[in-house]
Here is the input.
Amino acid sequence: MKKNNIHFQFPKTVQVPDRFRNPIGKFTVRRNARCISCGLCAELCPYGVHPRYDIYSKPLRPKDYKCIGFKCKENDFFCIDRCPEQALTLRRNPILETLGDYRWTSEMLIAHWEMAETANLPIVDLEYNLGNSGGGFDKIRFKTPEPGDYLNLGDEDIDTSINLNKRGDGRTDVINGIPCYGGGMSYGSTALSVMVSRARAAKLLNTLTCTGEGGYPKELLPYAEHVITQIATGLFGVREETILHTPMVEFKYAQGAKPGLGGHLLGDKVTPEVAAMRETVVGNALFSPFPFHSVYSVEDHKKHVDWIKEINPKTLVSVKVSTPTDVDMVAVGSYYAGAHVVHLDGSYGGTGAAPDIAKKNIAMPIEYAIPKVHNFLKDEGVRDNVCLIASGGIRNALDVAKAIALGADGVVIGTAELVALECVRCGHCESGRGCARGIATTDHELGIMITEDWATQRIVNMYMAWRKQWCEILRQYGLKSIKELVGRSDLLVHLDYLDEEERSKYQPAPQAELII
Amino acid sequence: MPKKYHIPIKTADPRHHPIGKYATVEFREDCAGSCKECVKKKCIYGIFKDNYLHMSTMGEPEYLYACHSCFRCVQECTRGIFSRVINPEYRTLGDEYWRPDIIHRLWYQAHTGKVPVSGAGYRGPFVGAGFDSMWTDMSEIVRPTRDGIHGREYINTCIEISRRISPLKFNDDMSLASEALPILEIPIPLMFQIPESLIVNQPIVESAARAAQVLNTFLIIRPEDYSDALLPYARSLIPSLTCDNAMDHQSLILKSRAVELAFGTNIEDTIQKVREIKSDIVLMVRIPLDADAASRALKLSVLGVDTLHFFADEHGNELNTEHPRFLKEMIREVHLKLVNGFVRQRINLVFSGGISMAEHMAKSIICGADGVIVDFPLLIALECRLCYRCRKDLSCPAKIDNTIDPQWGSQRIINLMGAWHNQLIEVMGAMGIREARRLRGEVGRSMWFEDLEMESFGPIFGKRKIAGLK
Here is the structure.
């Protein structure tokens, strides 16, 4: 059974190296022909940049992605200065300008790869808390804490759990060990191994993941306590039994990546297995129309919720909506229709393929929607009875904490989990055979690039690294539980709302011009 | 069943190898040579298959238009000899407004006719200048049709460029007492004009004219560019005349369904003279988008003009001022001036300058335009790189100064507009708007940066201390 207490034992973390021969790091270390293979660098470097084996005396290519860079200069083991032949050079990796974007910068990507590998916060000098977008989370900071507020507690004594059932209606309390759960990515849009790994990681972390709208493969059944069944407009793969064995059913009205547009699985991805799961024809593109054809009003929506509650008397119901102007009204309507979770999916997020015009332009960013809905629900007097979940452009542990302080109870994570699996955000999830990195593909060769053990541990590691950050934030403000952080917007500042002197006390928003 | 508006999209390959965003860099001195695991052979997109000669020649870095940036070659090469950079030529595309990524995406659309699609979320800045500081709304329930994605062909993107019919009046014998004005509609809220500041030649004009004819819209054309080769497209051409030369081009007026007159001191007289030549012609007036634009619009609205065409500079900025406002604000000003003057229904407003993406069309209409006029993207569809060499009388690297096949050129423009039309339908569908005409001035179907900041962040953070976006 899903554990429902805050003293849940978090999983062990294990180092999980990169799948590829040449991991990308922030720095490059090159060894030139002057090297005499004396082995001094290998002896000096505590980070393992210079591998050397007893039975092989020739110099090997440096594992430069482990290098901490120029800040190492102050150490007496700085290999560049200590090399007797001056055979080593260190520079910032020029490839970084081709990696990442305004929201997920190259450093944020590399840092998350490192977190997924080590389960620790990066030792390399990387900016992973702030993107380069110039707004929203990237301009919001936690206030400088008062030293007297600091709680001297270990991570194990800090509660990062959230309860998804706040209605007190006698249904199961679904308590997640971390304030996040996995977003819906359907069978067909990602490799099966990725899907199963996400479920396995959810089980280990005592949280949830979501089927997406593509059916419920039998491989997920061992993790059924941790798998949300999504019902979306195409109703692909929805069966009574998948509603019966889920802790929560998610109605997807809209999604942030393509608000108001429905879903689209290209024909190339509709393999025989996908078609069988969705009860469709191989090779035919599949559309999830927008919206539900059976819903014209909140009353119609209530019928949907009642239908699920009738089938499964224990399950919770989540309603996933996007962020239109009237998102506050939509949220309160969903609550009155009986939803346990109102899930807002902001416009800048999403993992699946979507028209660029939709991702950029339709619906408001999640940063605006959270306080709008939180305050509206408070004014309505129902905030304590509903779990508000946010998603869409929440990239890192700090974003999660900021979203919670703005008013969310927890968040849904999609992209970051894929980044943990070495997604480079090239954006070509949909073309040809699908993802070249074996994540978002059902291709018979590419779809087996990822093993379940590897992927499960990478995701676990990333969340365990994030948890360290959450615990530190909570300690700083004298909070023992992440539930105490909900709606604490008084702990936040926005750089644009500070006068110059006050603003100078905070880390400025990164503002590099990128080529996108 | 009425015939649906359909844009005939057909792949039109680029004539030149397009400039790619990335370049691979190989440290070949470290290459193992004839490696059986060579990542170039394993590229899942096969981008190296046409570049096999690089293996034997010591060429410059390869500029890979088709590279999808998956980094597998970089990460899997057994000797780690690969790296990547941004193609320096890519950086030189366009300027600060017509950015390389915009040009690149316009090329893609002109090539394939497809809507640009990508995964992994949005990757741009949180907010930007101009149109990038507003978002379009969506509706969770209200839809233009109940057929979801299959109902989008019922979304009407027509606009009129002729005057609106005022309520009909009847005599006692029920005969019509009011004048029934001619109706001229275009099925897509955009028209074309060839930018004068770039290359203008016969094949380019013919490409645009053919495309305008196929799309059932119009190309605004200077009389000096009008040639006999364009006569088959005369019904899709709008001669752009001035008060001084209008009477010299009476034959053009007679063969056209609409004519454009540049705003000038004699505009009233000229309008009257043109009407005398052809009474049912649709009259457009071309006005600089400057501080006087709104007041001029108000004056012209009572002169029987059908459509006002305001032109901004090529970056969408207000003209004749040191501190220009962007198209978005200018459209609002003109539109609201006419609304407040109770004449907005009488006249149509179209705007040109800086319309570079499909979303600009939708957002211009939300701000109050009826439609837009597309200029630079026509040339970009023909592979223009906006290098502006032509302005210095230097040769065109894309060779659009001499050898364009109008059949190919028109297909590229049709493809681009087909993709734009589809994108307009996407955002209209999300908004629950079934008619482009209903979208006009419908700012309630949009969200603006300043408003969202004030509404969502104001109660938390207080007063904003930084003006503008940065």
